[in-house]
Amino acid sequence: MRTVVVVGGSTGGVRSVQALRRAGYDGRLVLVSDESHLPYDRPPLSKEMLFANATDEPVPLLTRAEVASLDVNLRLGQRAVALDPAARVLTIEVDGTSEQIEYDALVIATGVEARRLPAAEGVAGVHVIRRLEDALALQAVMGAGRSAVVVGAGFIGAEFASAARARHMDVAVVEAQAAPLEHVLGAEVGAEVASVHGAHGVDLRAGRTVAEVLTENGRAVGVRLDDGAELAADMVVVGIGATPATQWLTSSGLPVQDGIDCDEDLQVLGFPGVYAVGDIARWPHPSYDRPIRMEHWTNAGDHAQIMAAHLTGRPRPAAPLPYVWSDQYGHRIQIVGRPSEGKATVFHGGMASGDLVALYAAPDGRIVGALVVDDPRLLMKVRKAIGAGAPVTEVEQSLLTTSA
Predict the structure, then answer these.
(1) Residue 284, number of CB atoms within 10 A of its CB
(2) CA 284/CA 298 separation, integer angstroms
(3) Rg of the Cα trace of the chain?
(4) What distance lies between CA 98 and its chain's CA centroid?
(5) Measured between alpha carbons, how far is 193 from 109 in angstroms, rounded to an integer?
(6) pLDDT, tens digit, for every residue of 365-398?
(7) What is the pLDDT of residue 353?
(8) How far apart are CA 384 and CA 322, in angstroms?
(9) What SS3 state is found at 166?
(10) Residue 109, Cβ neighbours under 10 Å: how many?
(11) Which CATH superfamily hosts domain 116-240?
């Protein structure tokens, strides 16, 4: 009997198992996860679980009944530590001892790990938000009258700040760029997104970095910035991006410079039978002229379908455009396409009014990306226009002026 082993129990791994069964794979299926919990959804950790009266139960990706119906051997609390692709053997660690699993095909979906502040490792009161335990630890210390310094104004940092202000906490956000997400959205749109922080009483320190985490008795009590300013806090929350979880693959020979290099079917370059999906995969998306790696929730499911089709000999499904969303201060920010591939040439509305729209054009005038706030119907129309390569001027005329 053939054996497919999937490494990683988050969205990429779970969607891979489901996609393989839907595609008709009926062989042995093993899912290895280094977490002891049943697979759960990560976005709600920062989008839902940090608010007052939130549940301490994660949103499940798989129930026990679904595990049984998928006929998958679920190996929880077991960490992948090495890979021998020539022998087709995965080594995992189980209760401190090594075990080897032979496979016919391997799917790597170990995702990314939260980047941490230098010299803050092990300091009590310094948090990241990546796993269930991270959200539960913050749940336990958040509350009215408490204070937090957030390092990084990306989606994770902004979502924490939103939840903390909703719980009447004092919040300061430190952002190295002149405006949040400036490298993705540009200065003008980034500044507009930043305005929502000030409107909700957050002290945003843009263009600043953390020089030192201040401690007392081994616990964080604030930070010192690069300009010498000190911000006191009961907790420090770090949201400065993530790095691909490839350390366990360093001796495997796989191409792991920044993620894992794959072909158009998500098969690892030079390693037949080994696939990578989700945040960890760098691949040639058909809409772009160079390989890209996307840390987007929807991307993991898209990858899983492409991988499963190739592994089972089915036609490759179309690759949807990149898409990501963030819930902040009662607003939903949605981004489709690749705004960083162009320049914001159309700018309407604002964050305060909840109708911000920014359209991004390539040098030849094609729309390549968009940001839309609180208008899912408009987002769907813009998504189609990006997929069709429509001129941004045409999109503005047909979509924005008619909705004015």
Answers:
(1) 15
(2) 17
(3) 22
(4) 30
(5) 32
(6) 999 999 999 999 999 999 999 999 999 998 888 7
(7) 86
(8) 12
(9) helix
(10) 31
(11) FAD/NAD(P)-binding domain (3.50.50.60)
User: Could you tell me the CA-to-CA distances from 75 to 41, 63, 234, 274 in Å, in that order?
Assistant: 18, 14, 38, 19
Q: Tokens 């803050």: give the residue.
A: 120
- CA 362 to chain centroid, in Å, comes to 25
Q: Kindly report the number of other CB atoms within 10 A of residue 388's CB atom.
A: 11
**Alpha-carbon distance values, 157 to 84, 172, 193, 237, 309 (Å):** 38, 10, 13, 7, 36
SS3 of 185, please?
Answer: helix
Residues carrying CATH 3.30.390.30, the chain: 330-403
Burial 76-101 (b: 16+ CB within 10 A, else e): eebbbbbbebeebebebbeeeeeeeb
Q: What is the CATH number of domain 330-403?
A: 3.30.390.30
Q: Enter the DSSP assignment of 366.
A: B
Q: How many CB atoms lie within 10 A of CB 363?
A: 9
Alpha helices in 334-396 (DSSP H): 376-388, 392-395
Architecture of domain 3-113+243-311: 3-Layer(bba) Sandwich (3.50)
Which part of the chain is CATH 3.50.50.60?
Answer: 3-113+243-311, 116-240
The pair of structure tokens assigned to 182 is: 């400036």
Identify the H or E element spanning 151: strand 147-151
pLDDT at 401: 58
CB 266 within 8 Å of CB 308: no
Q: What is the chain's mean pLDDT, rounded?
A: 94
**17-31 average pLDDT score:** 97
Nearest-angstrom CA–CA distance, 231 and 66: 47
Q: How far apart are CA 292 and CA 130, in angstroms?
A: 22
CA 388, 393, 396, 397 torsion-angle sign: negative
φ/ψ region of 310 (left if φ > 0, alpha if ψ in -120 to 50, else beta) reads alpha
For the beta sheet containing 210-216, the strands, ordered from the edge strand earlier in sequence to the opposite edge, are: 210-216, 219-225, 230-232
